[in-house]
Fold each of these.
Amino acid sequence: MANLRGLFLALAISLIALNLNSVEATFPENVYFTWGANQATISSNGEDLQLVLTNLSVKAPSPTLLTILASLGFSGSGIQSYNAYLFGSIEMLIKLVPGNSAGTVTAYYLSSTGDKHDEIDFEFLGNSSGDPYTVHTNVFAQGVGGKEQQFKLWFDPTADYHNYTIHWNPSEIVWFIDELPIRVFRNYESKGIGYPNKQGMWLYSSLWNADNWCTQGGRVKIDWSCAPFKAGLRNYRPRACRWYGQSSIYSCAVNASYNWWTSPVYSKLSYSQIGQMNWVRNNYIIYNYCTDYKRFNWNMPAECSLEQY
Ligand SMILES: *[C@@H]1O[C@H](CO)[C@@H](O)[C@H](O)[C@H]1NC(C)=O
Ligand SMILES: *[C@@H]1O[C@H](CO)[C@@H](O)[C@H](O)[C@H]1NC(C)=O
Ligand SMILES: *[C@@H]1O[C@H](CO)[C@@H](O)[C@H](O)[C@H]1NC(C)=O
Ligand SMILES: *[C@@H]1O[C@H](CO)[C@@H](O)[C@H](O)[C@H]1NC(C)=O
């Protein structure tokens, strides 16, 4: 009997170890630089990471070459997580590029690989000094995206670190800013609407030059005299289910206490969270694909008429 209990305990512990990444792990343990490693820095015992976008011409062998490289975004920096995940919570504190950040984009998103990829996005589009940032959100399922919603913020995102968290479970995706839900995308697979639940996603974050489209449709260019641009990332916390391939489609979704994200509390927002989300959406939404009738020629995507909370 005691042996059996011991066996179950060992099994339970190994299941937890299998599914949960070490939550308190630092940036060097969790992520690597995909580009720009020479510019970005890690500090505070690995809890802080600074993404940097510079004007490369400082080290220019040829000004023309470097103008081209800079315009392609090669002067920025980016990270990717070692592990992929399927469901859970991905949490990051971010302090955006201060001052004149027009033309810069700080991206923070989850994505799988391949041409039918899944993706959940937070992107922060910089602006001229004093003008507000745009927070861009989107979701892709099996390669299909086009579900953009954009927001302004109710605080200055460059003055301090704020909490940007993605909750993702078999029932819904919730984008949180400082614990306020700003958007929900529910799983309506039963109605034929794609939902990301069969591919592991990696975390990516990067700072790059997007002045060909980002600020006011590309009209406002990066002012390189303000370079280097720096965005701070802090306390990355993946409380999420590790992806080990096809078997994870079941093991990360199964309703069990070690898969905390499958608990009924996370399948739907509470009444007070719905109230918070309505406050954000009534006051700060600036673009919603669901009300862009012209774009869809009045054939609105099916999820637009379904409840999202
Ligand atoms: C980078 O800075 C130098 C000197 O400040 C400037 O001459 C050059 O045009 C800048 N490069 C780009 C790509 O703007
Ligand atoms: C960040 O927000 C998430 C979602 O609301 C929350 O679970 C988490 O505790 C917050 N983290 C911090 C450090 O406040
Ligand atoms: C920048 O600020 C202007 C003026 O408030 C606004 O129209 C624009 O949407 C803002 N965001 C971006 C990314 O351009
Ligand atoms: C998951 O398990 C909990 C606790 O046993 C239960 O309350 C809930 O209804 C279950 N959810 C589903 C989708 O089966």
Amino acid sequence: MATSLSQRPQLRYLADQIEELKKKGTHFRLRVLEDAQAPVCHYDGRQVINLASNNYLGLCNHPKLKEAAEKATRELGVGPGAVRTIAGTMKIHMELEEKIARFKNVEACVVFQSGFTANAGTVSAILGKEDFIISDELNHASIIDGARLSRAKIKVFRHKDLAHAEELLREVQNEPGHKLLITDGVFSMDGDIGPVDKLADLAEKYGAIMMVDDAHASGVLGRNGRGTVDHFHCHGRVDIQVGTLSKAIGAIGGYVCGSKDLIDFLYHRARPFLFSTSHPPSVTATCMAAFDLLESEPERIDRLWQNTRYFKTELGRLGFDIGGVTTPASETPITPIIVGEGRRAMDFSRALFEAGVMATGIAFPTVPEGKARIRTIMTSEHTREQLDQALEILEKTAKGMRILG
Ligand SMILES: *Cc1c(COP(=O)(O)O)cnc(C)c1O
């Protein structure tokens, strides 16, 4: 038996907080996936239709990616053995960065261990306490953490509110510091798209650095999944593009694209790059194979969007509140079903799971109080039969809980 530490008083306050979560009905246990990530798979011993993953293009378990990982492991081993700046930069790391830079049509790229470290490491490296960050209120936690670590002054604009963003830029325009205007390309909780083109206009007008976090847009939006900059025809107008290798690309990692100078600077100053070991060759090779697939099998992205349009239309037709006031807010494969109270969203998620659908419940503080929801995410690999079955389960369960009338 493991040594028990639970009787010691030091961390008792954490147990008290967990009790609070349990009382509010928002405590969860991790669901455990027992096979590979797929449209139908097994969590906690139950077969479910999976509407919860970010495996947009079904690449998590793709034979060509697995083959690339195996080959790289056989030839190059399982780990790089050092951080990038000491002795851990392998040829394959440089090849992936060059490949991504070409794909994104930018001068240079640096790969990080995750999208989280890419954002946090970049924002905290390029700004200091004299500088300003003008940030959408719904930007990802990794941007917020990077902003805090930078010690720059943080000004938050109302979600996608261009007039408010401009007001904040105007407030600081005569201050000496650098200004960073930053948005998610796709917002992960509502599935709506950031107004990258219009923000780029503002950034130019006020001389701000423009940065986009394209985690949910990588492999999803733009030609062959090139992201929001391509979607909005903003090439050459966004100084810093962050993408993830953990979602549509199917593996793990994050990258930053921009000028040669930006990337060279990050090699010298981004702390996760300097102080944490780089990817094993298997991960890097997997990502190379994934970018090849984006170019050679664009029909995956077409299927993703066909499924997205179908599922969203059907959810609306059934009468679900899928966010937005007049039109659905979501424009992407992410569609929320707004339930309201946190406990109710969690109960809905649990009932769906029992009925055979995996859709994550999301409550405060991840989304505002009163806007708790379950979130659904499409992939290219869901069949029409699976989607129809999921819709039937959603309708029946929601009616049973009086979420639908
Ligand atoms: C998922 C996500 C990240 C983090 O990406 P990882 O590669 O999983 O670390 C960053 N930003 C946004 C908007 C995300 O949705």
